[in-house]
Amino acid sequence: MENLKILEDRKGQVFEKGKDKFDLLCGVKSASGAVSQRACVFCGSRVVLYPITDALHLVHGPIGCAAYTWDIRGSLSSGPSVNRMSFSTDLRELDVVYGGADKLYKAASSLIDKHSPKAAFIYSTCIVGLIGDDVESVCRKLTLEKGIPVIHVDSEGFKGTKKDGYRAACEALAKLVGTGDISGVVPVSINILGEFNLAGEAWIIRDYYRRMGVNVNAVITGDARVEDIKRAHGAALNVVQCSGSMTYLAKIMEEKYKIPYIRVSYFGLEDMTSALYDVAAFFKDSPEILERAKTVVKGEVDAIMGELLKYRNELRGKKAALYVGGAFKAFSLIKALRVIGMDVVLAGSQTGNKEDYEDLKKISDEGTIIIDDANPQELSRFITEKKADILIGGVKERPIAYKIGIGFCDHNHERKTALAGYEGMLNFAREVYSSVMSPVWKFVPRNDAFGGKRGRP
Ligand code: SF4
Q1: Ligand 1: which of 126, 127, 131, 161 to mutate, most ligand atoms within 8 Å of CB?
Q2: What does the pLDDT read at residue 351?
Q3: Which atom of ligand 1 is nearest to the CA of 155?
C-alpha cells in the first residue's frame, strides 16, 4: 500500500482535512496516466439530454460511443419512449476518409420519418471533431424539411471534461426554451432543473410540490417532453437540483428571461426539507404554501423516522466513502449518513468546483480525504487507509468496493431504486444497512488496493 503513490500531477487534487493546506485544484483536464473515473464530454451531454422522452437521440460517431444505452442508465417515462432506443451513424473507415455528413443526413431523416419525434438531438463524438463534418448545416436542413427542431449537441469527447458535456447539453436545451406558448402557465410555477427521474424521483418530488400548491411547469429533463422544455420560460423560479449539470442553463434563463434560480438537493432529510421550504419562501406572497409545506414535511418525516432510528442504532460509528458526480450531492450524503449514525472518511467528485470543495471541507470531519477527479488506485488506497465500511458511488466504483471486500451503494445514474425525497432517504438507509451489515463480509477477507489479504479490522 505504501508503494501506491499519488501522481505528481494529481497532488493538488487531493486534500486531507486537518493535515494539508486547503487549495484544491479542480475543473482541470484529467492527468495523463491517471485512469480517471470521469466520463467524456459526449457522455456528460447525453446523461442530461437522454431522459427527454419524445426526442430522438442520434449519436454521430463509431458504434462504441453509443454503448451506454437506456438499459444501463434508464430514466423512467410516464408516456413516450423514443429515448429508450439507441441510434448511431456507426462511422467506419470510409466515412472517416470521405466524411460522414451524408450518412448522418440519411440516418437522421429516415429515423425522424419512422419515429416521429418532437425534436432530435445529434451528438458529435471525437471522430466527428477530427474529420470536420458540418453537423450544424445537416441539422438546419433537417429542421426545415421535417418541421421539428433538430439540434446539434457539440460534444466531441476529447475537448474537455464531462462538465463541458453538461454545458453542451445546456446550450442545446437553451435552443428549445423560449419557443413554446406560455399563455397557460399559472403564476405559482417552477421548473426543476437537473432531476432525471432515474427511478421515478421526479414524480415523488412533483407530488410534494403539488401538495404545497406549487405547479411544476417542466422537469428538465426527467420524464420531460419537448413541449415542456419549450415553455420552461413561463415559470417564476428555476429550482436547480444537479447544480453541476444545470446551473449553466439556469444562468442563461436568468439572463434571457429574468427567471431567478435557487440550488437545492432532494437527497437526505435536511436538504429535502430545505428544498420545499426554500420554494415556499420564494412564493412568500402566498403564505398558505409554507403552511402546506410544513404539513408535507411533518407527515413524511413521521412516516419514516421510526425505521431510520432502527438503522441508526445498528450503523452508529460505521464509516463511508463517497465518490459522486457533483460535489453538491456529496454535502447531502454527508448529512444523510450522519442521520443514520455514520461518519464520512472520504468525499470526492468528478466535477466539483472551488466553492463546492470549500463547502465540502467546512462540513467534513477532521481527517476526511477530499478528492477531485479520482482514479481507482487513489480510491482504493484511501478507502483502505481510512477503513471505510462502504463505498457510495456509481457503476464504475462498484468493482473497487467489491475487490476490497466492503459494501457498496449505487447512488448514480444506473440505479433502479428511488433515493430522492423522504421515501428515498429511507431506501438509502435500507440499502446502506443491507450492504454494510451483510453476513457475506464474514466470509470475504478485506483486501488492500492491490488485492493482498489484510483480514478484517
Ligand atoms: S471519448 Fe470520444 S470516442 Fe470515446 S466515447 Fe467519448 S466521444 Fe466516443
Answers
A1: 126
A2: 78
A3: 7
Domain final position from 152, 176, 200? 176
Pairing relationship of beta strands 369-372 and 343-349 according to DSSP bridges: parallel
Question: What CATH number is associated with residue 165?
Answer: 3.40.50.1980
Same domain, 344 and 360: yes
For residue 97, the CA-to-ligand 1 centroid distance in Å is 19
Q: What letters, b where the CB count within 10 A reaches 16 and e where it falls short, cover 68-79?
A: bebeebbbbbee
β-bridge pairing 119-124 and 407-410: unpaired
Counting from 1 in the atom list of ligand 1, the atom nearest the Cα of 126 is: 2
Ranges of the chain with pLDDT below 70: 1-4, 448-457
Give the ligand 1 atom nearest the CA of 156. Answer: 7
By DSSP bridging, strand 369-372 and strand 14-16 are antiparallel
Residues 312 and 429 reside in one and the same domain: yes
Residue 305's pLDDT is what? 97
Q: The domain containing residue 148 runs over which residues?
A: 41-176
* Ligand 1 cavity residues, CB under 6 Å: 40, 42, 61, 65, 125-126, 157-158
The protein residue whose alpha carbon is closest to atom 3 in ligand 1 is 126
> What are the beta bridge partners of residue 407?
390
Ligand 1 atom 1, closest CA: 157
Ligand 1 centroid–CA 59 distance in Å is: 11
pTM of the model: 0.91
Cβ–Cβ under 8 Å, residues 414 and 394: yes
Quickly list DSSP for 436-451: HT-GGGGGSPPB-TTS
Maximum distance among all Cα pairs of the chain, rounded to whole angstroms:
66
Q: Are residues 382 and 351 in the same domain?
A: yes
Nearest to 9 by CA among 373, 307, 257, 254: 373
pLDDT value of residue 395? 84
- Residue 61 φ/ψ region, left for φ over 0, alpha for ψ in the -120 to 50 degree band, beta for the rest: left
For residue 133, the one-letter residue type is: D
Same domain, 330 and 261: no
| Structure confidence at residue 457 (pLDDT) | 45
